[in-house]
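Final report, section 2: Outcomes. Of the targets proposed, 3-hydroxyacyl-CoA dehydrogenase is the one most frequently requested by collaborating groups, and we therefore present its record in full.
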Amino acid sequence: METVRLARQGEIAIATIDNPPVNALGQALRADLARVLSEASTDPAVTAIVIAAAGKAFIAGADISEFGKPPLAPLLPDVLDAIEGSEKPVVAAIQGVALGGGLEVALACHARVAAASAMLGLPEIKLGLIPGAGGTQRLPRLIGAAKAFPMMLSGEPVSAGKALELGLVDEVAGGDVVAAAVTLAQALVAKGAPEPARERDDRLTAKDREAFEVLAAEASLKSGDMPNAMALIEAVRAAFTLSFAEGLAAERALFTALLADPRSKALRYVFFAEREIARVPGIDSAVKPREIARAAVIGAGTMGGGIAMCFANAGIAVTLIEQEQAQIDNGMNRVAAIYEMSVTRGSLTPAKRDERVALITPAVGLGAAAEADIVIEAAFEEMGVKQQIFGALDAIVKPGAILASNTSYLDVPTIAAATTRPQDVLGMHFFSPANVMKLLEIVRPAGVADDAVVTAMALGRRLGKVPVVVGNGFGFVGNRMLEARTRATERLLVAGALPHEVDAALTGFGFKMGPCAMADLAGNDIGWRSRKARGKTAAVADAICEAGWFGQKTGRGYFLYPDGARTGQRDPEVEALIARVSQEKGVTRRSFTADEILSRLLDPMVNEGARILEEGIAARPGDIDVIWLNGYNWPAWRGGPMHWADTIGLGVIVARLEAQAAETGDTALEPAPLLRRLAAEGKGFADLKARPV
Ligand code: HSC
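The predicted structure is given below as tokens.
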């Protein structure tokens, strides 16, 4: 199938790119584009060429799935060279998004017209790369390096209006963008085309260089450890110091080196994993979601209030329900205070705040949920409470309404059993703070209807979340693996590591926070209560709680927080307490290197992830990775725990777990059968096929 159609409008040739879903520049498209352009260039009846596109994107960039494979001709830089070298003016008609290689196509054209709603950007940095088809050389020549560099460093696209202001496009079309591009092409034929970007060295002034170098110095300080940020500086600098052709060659060499960097590989893996989650194994893609016009949230605590805000932020009317007036008043006050903070910070206008608050209707009593298309329960985490609420809701809500529990650990089928409609009951596990965190685990218990799951997925996306379908099981995916890490932290503290050492190993790996600081932030009493309820103990964590050191809120936890400080300091008393626990357990404390700590924290998580896959609680290793990236701050350039394990090698992980199991006598550390099998076969998690949860 041809990916570019050639048509004529008078003397103007229109090459329309049509390569669904997003016109990515795969080999077929590059070949078709080169061929069509050559046809138009040699056709004596054609005086100018417009490059347009069908669908929601102009061009989304290079085809990311081709990266890492042997390059296939024609290469994009060669196609762009032909465009720029064309004797007949070439005009880009940009609608939708022009990203990465897509914008580079437009930059090689002699002029650019954008639809008013178009977005233009060079987002390669987000994939651990830099522009590789001339972007770093052409953009500075068009708009100056001082403006081009920040655009490439952030990777954020700009609107058509902003692009016009920057000089990135020549015109923003009021109406049809192709018609406007044709008109511009005709004008260029009459008056002569402007010099192409590669000839525009006049923009690369000493003043521009000076301004760029200031920005480059700031970027080196901030992002010095990211090789692509450093490569970007080098490439843009080459625009000043080298000829255009040499600059292109320098850019190409830097781009090619980055392609092989494991950080870029991880980011590209994440790009596809985050899209893969939309395909739920076992559910036909033709299943349609139910309509959601109105929601209700039960429980106006921190979680419930945050969930209600998610609806209001997405423009969906929501009723926030409590048992008593005082409770709902408190909940609404908390919501108002959070919105107020956004207004103070300048991220929300007062008008928008009022609009959002107006979408939240406070109510007392479950009866207020009668009209809702979906009810999300965020009440106390206790089975009896949940069952009572679901039983009552069953008699109140309309047929077909979805009943979701925000439980983080409890058995969803047992909650569903309190109703007569298990086909409509599932879990929607938000993460705290619910109005901020992107992750949403959608728990699919046996018996729930497929369209209920699809509805929760679609709703999750409307709420701006990253929804991942998981199976039912204690702690589902994220918290179950977190618990493995929490147990590992406790083991390390007893064996000889100190809280600041454990945390430093993890922040050194790229997490924003270590497990001890995180527990202090969340409140150590939460885990304590949960352990007690399950008859579990953790000597260090329990002793800290028995001392009343619940974390930041009490000014003391694993660390000290004097005068309301948010960053903890080492606490000699806690360290003495930990040493006492080791002594009581007859453990001779020893020191651990950061690498040892990392392995002891992360390997057990990978092991738990393997069990989760074996039990069918997660459909794919990529789903687990997406959960950890969006809910637990796993650094994106490490690709998530399962991808990380693959990069280490599963054989290595198995050997390390065996050693840890032998040393501690903890059978939970024995490698999971799936992990052993994959390691024995020399495979990785990436070799697993998706299966229904
Ligand atoms: C690049 O361009 C490098 C260049 O500088 C030069 C390279 C040349 C080097 C040569 C050297 C010799 N590729 O997101 P959605 C798929 S780097 C492949 O759900 P939306 C996506 O997987 C690239 N596939 O839709 C999904 O497939 P599925 C720079 C791509 O409407 C489907 O399209 N560009 C793809 O929410 C729909 O995607 C970027 O980083 C791509 N480039 O968002 C832009 N882009 O249905 C990346 C999308 O099978 N893309 N797909 O799951 C995006 O940001 C978003 O996808 C859009 C659409 C905003 C385009």
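The chain has three domains: 4-260, 294-476, 498-590.
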